Amino acid sequence: MNKAQNTTSKPFNRENLPKLTKKQTVFVKQILENPKHSATQAAAIAYDVANRNTARVIASENLAKPAIISHLDN
């Protein structure tokens, strides 16, 4: 058995989730509370960005981060 197979994982709960910045927290909250909004709209609100292209890039980068994915999955 190699090391990766021998590790024990912690039960998944809120205390085990990675920490997010304040803006990332608002981004996740916007996505979860407004399912009709896009991630671009959530980024525009959370990061106070008027340019839609900038918001799109921020949203794309955020949705690729494991910490944010973990929060969205829970």
Got a strand count?
A: 0
The poorly predicted ranges are 6-12
Tally of DSSP helical segments? 4
Termini gap = 31 Å
Major β-sheet annotation: none
Element-by-element helix/strand order: HHHH
Integer average pLDDT: 86
Radius of gyration: 15 Å
Helical proportion? 40-55%
Principal-axis shape equals globular
Tell me the structural class. Answer: mainly alpha
Fraction in beta strands: under 5%
Structure characteristics:
4 helices, 74 residues, single chain
Describe the structure.
- The protein is mainly alpha-helical and about 70 residues long.
- The protein is built from 4 helices and no strands.
- It has helices at about 20-35, 40-45, 50-65, 65-74.
- α1 (about 20-35) packs across α2 and α2 packs across α3 (about 50-65).
- The protein is globular.
What is this structure, in a nutshell?
With 74 residues, the protein is mainly alpha-helical. It has helices at 22-33, 39-46, 52-63, 66-73.
